[in-house]
Write the structure tokens for this entry.
Amino acid sequence: MVSIIPQPLHLLTRPEHVPVARFEIRGGGLEQAPWLDGLAADVLGAAVARVAGTAQGPGGGDGERTGSPAPTAVVLRLDENAGPDGSTSRERYSLVVDAGGAVLSAPEPAGLFHALQTLRQLVEAPAPGEAGARVPHVVVHDAPRYGWRGLSVDVARHFFGLADLRAVVDVAAAYKLNVLHLHLTDDQGWRIESPTRPELAELSSGSDTSGGSGGHLSLADFRALQDHAAERFVRVVPEIDVPGHINAATHVYGDLMPDGVPTDAYTGIEVGFSRLTIDLPSTEPFLRDVFTDLARATDGEHVHLGGDEVLKMEPAEYARFVELCERIVLEAGKKPVAWQEVAKAPLRPGTIVQYWDTHPADLTYLVEAAEAGARVIMSPANRVYLDMKYTADFPLGQDWAGLVEVRDAYDWEPEEAVPGLPASAIEGVEAAVWTERIPTLDDLFTMLLPRLTAVAEVAWTEPARKDWEDYRRRVAAEAAVWRESGVAFHPSPQVAW
Ligand code: TNX
């Protein structure tokens, strides 16, 4: 039985296997993605080494020795006709494995990368009494349900730097996620260099919520992170959260406060107490500077402007903030994304709204915004907030949205999450991990895994192809990969480890 996560749309397995002492990547050398051959060799080499228990470098290690088995061909091919019949997704792909080796085809390199992840998961341990890894003969035609499959990481409450975020991208991409949303600013810290406002990171990034020394991403770090993500077909959506969650800025600039006095640095975990004031002369120049700087540093087409939990502001002033920030982001050449609350204000066409708060009894404002053309990302906190505890006694995370065991993250339907929301308005699904009570990278992965793979399947796989009992078997196979690569995970009793 094969174990692929997320479950592909069409999967046909045959009883035969092809032995793989090593893979040989052929026919790649793609102009648009010249790095893909090397990445494929690394990913597949590691998968073979893991199950066969041998050290295998890129390109195949000791396969040249006399008498060693012939390499198994892996062909990467761009092909408009690849993928499931009728799919229009640019990420679609096909994968065929037979006695001749593996053929990966897709209209674009992103699909080849997804095919590669599928093939990686097909590498099996030797049959009893035999030696060497093997791959079952398969035919896969696959495409994602949603084009936005994300993970949001809060680097403000605790800072996670370039190396950590690269590791997060690697894990997200392994399950075919394609968006890394970075929550870069909050009351506790300003975690991105802003060239026109260098004081922000200099003066407001030196602490976190557990007495640590914080940190921030330089523009060079942000550049390197986007490059690493792009090579794995993950786009980065950076967020500056306004007009609340803003103490890191009011700590630096007293002129953002009505009384002109900078606020104290904040290391607690309350939310909703800080705010900007629209009619102060310094406010708009501040917003223009930080959003324009961020837009310039960003390759992707989206910039997230926050907008959540502004508990101390009249609706009229809030609406003016939303309008102003949308305009600034658009003038900087990017499309705005913002948290659910912005749908209470009139929105410009094209703004993407991110649903998160499952508490409001009445979500009419969100449904109406969607009916008026807003796109919606589904991040219901009681399903995909991966900072929620697994169980009541879990040492990490919080529980305000409830406990989120693996099955809770798996067993939900985006089209049913908001009653009345038109299914056609759903842009995609995004998990989020807030880090008030998640201090280390091991802690972060413990919260992400295995639940992130569950959310990835919600975002990729058609509902008719999802199955909890099958998923809890399939996900167990990934634990070996996590152990091998030193990535922490929570051994939830719900999984058939
Ligand atoms: C709500 S989600 C928040 C965050 C917190 C998170 C903790 C959202 C848009 N706002 O500020 O970190 O809960 O789970």
Q: What stands out?
A: Confidence is low (pLDDT under 50) at residues 55-66. The pocket of TNX is lined by residues 154, 271, 308-309, 339, 356, 385, 387, 398, 434, 436 (CB under 6 Å).
